[in-house]
Specification:
The protein is mainly alpha-helical. It has 7 helices and no strands.
Length: 113
């Protein structure tokens, strides 16, 4: 078998998660910091123009009040899905369920909860 064909065939066997170099921290920096801030403290650059303050992901008490299912749902479906701000967009068309689950784990790191 031709080596280039073998290489291409091997690439097809790599799971999608392994092929995707994006980490939860990368996705957080790309999609979340504009509102939630670089530190996750809710003080992103968009805050000045927002009528509702973004969630402070470093607040362990506040974040612990949310289940993983709620966090997953709000990331996937947007703020309205859990009766929160319409300014929180749904990310289901951008992020996979696995990436959203990884973001939920990343939020636990930010709040240390």
């Amino acid at each position: 078998m031709n080596r280039s064909i073998m290489f291409c065939a091997a690439l097809l066997l790599i799971p999608a998660a392994a092929a995707n170099a994006e980490t939860a921290a990368d996705n957080y920096r790309t999609y979340c910091v504009q509102c939630h801030g670089l530190k996750g403290d809710g003080k992103g650059i968009n805050v000045a123009d927002m009528s509702t303050q973004p969630r402070d992901h470093t607040d362990a008490k506040e974040m612990s009040a949310r289940t993983d299912q709620e966090l997953f749902k709000v990331i996937k479906e947007g703020g309205q899905s859990i009766n929160k701000s319409v300014l929180m967009p749904p990310w289901s068309s951008i992020l996979t369920d696995e990436e959203i689950q990884d973001l939920v784990k990343h939020l636990h790191k930010l709040c240390k909860c």
